[in-house]
Amino acid sequence: MKLYDLNASPNARRVRIFIAEKAIDIPVQDVDLATGYNKTEDYLTKNILGRMPLLELDDGTCISESHAICRYLEETYPNPPLMGRTPVERAHVEMWNRRMELELLHPLINMFIHSHPMWKDTRTQIPDWADVCQRHAIETLGWLDRSLEGREFIATDDYTVADITAQCSILMGKAVGVRVPETHSNIAEWWGRVTSRPTARA
Questions:
Q1: Distance between the two ends of the chain, CA-based, in angstroms?
Q2: CA distance 22 to 65
Q3: For residue range 89-110, what is the model confidence (pLDDT) as tens digits?
Q4: CA distance 5 to 3
Q5: What is the CATH number of domain 87-201?
Q6: Which of 29, 60, 87, 107 sits in a 20 to 30 Å window from 174, CA-based?
Q7: To 5 degrees, how large is the angle CA 76–CA 57–CA 75?
Q8: Nearest to 153 by CA among 107, 187, 116
Q9: What is the DSSP letter of 101?
């Protein structure tokens, strides 16, 4: 296997943390966007969208989209389980992972895309949409804090991919100026737990 990685991408970081938690040794090829390799015919045959991360299997099969990569790795390397142990746990992990993607990570990524100068010539920017996404992310942090009351982790009693997604979302928020309010003590305690894990810097 080989992982095509983009260091600054929160989605790529999700996969790196997942791999580190599984203790899998996968060779990594860092993709430098400045070289344009991700837009070459060679790379586009692997991922037509030209994005990272991408997992290439030994037989040439390519899997893109971070959650799909994590799903494949979960099925192939089931221990430690990061997507739940029982049908109910797996459903809760899926539910919370989707919430963290749709209600926190995606708004923060859209805020970045629609407000940062680096996207000016590559995406149509709508500054008002960036403002909407910012408010949405702040509201999400509010109900996430309430949901974490009395809990160590987001979806189950164990650390899961839902925590990984939220973890990468919080980092994305810091990059765009959306920080967890000091009043959100439940998130702060959860953050201390997840960032103390050896995999947090993957």
A1: 18
A2: 18
A3: 999 999 999 999 999 999 999 9
A4: 6
A5: 1.20.1050.10
A6: 29
A7: 15
A8: 187
A9: I
